[in-house]
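Please review this one:
***
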Amino acid sequence: MSTPQKALFNWSSGKDSALALYKTLQNSDFKIEYLLTSVNKQYQRISMHGIRVELLQEQAQSIGIPLKILEVPEMPTMEVYEKVMTETLTELKQDGITHSIFGDIFLEDLRQYRENQLAKIGLKGVFPIWKIPTRDLIEEFISLGFKTIVVCVNEKYLDKSFVGRIIDQDFINDLPENVDVCGENGEFHTFTFDGPIFSKPIDFEIGEIVYRKYEKPEKQDSSNTACDSNDETAFDFGFWYCDLIHK
């Protein structure tokens, strides 16, 4: 039997990460040494998801895999983001890491970007749930006993009533036809708090629901942010966030 290859897992705290991690843990080809998560340095919350670091740390402890936090400024330029990521991955490579695992499903340009950046460092990307139909994924996720709560919605696709809801069949049935059931186009983000990868559920209470709209970067910088979108209207819409408080 071959020795498992050392890998890091890019952990977002949400459902796609949870299912991809579950599948990777069933794969004897890899041994996950670390969870790696990007955190907004100013607010100490997971980028885009808005989850407090304390809850992220609770997840990692329950999963039983060491956590590495990648601190980035809000709306970093690509240069800043790539510099921090390269430094972190280069450091982890010294521990024998050869692979970086992601929960991406079907965004081709994002996968290509990740693979190109990893190749510069000498790492390989792994995508355990790539191209699996999202309806199949969400049904498997629920059937395995995972539980996840919607913590952020993009108002372009969903209204305030969807944030703070647990994803179940009723939630899926209520989604508009133009919204992917896994939110793969950025329609919503989640926090997974129970399931087969956890030794115990993550204990939290729901705090306030807040609305936030991001300012569009200056024109000369608008194509150079790590949060950039090809959609010219991306900054016309805001986000509803549901704050989760560690108990």
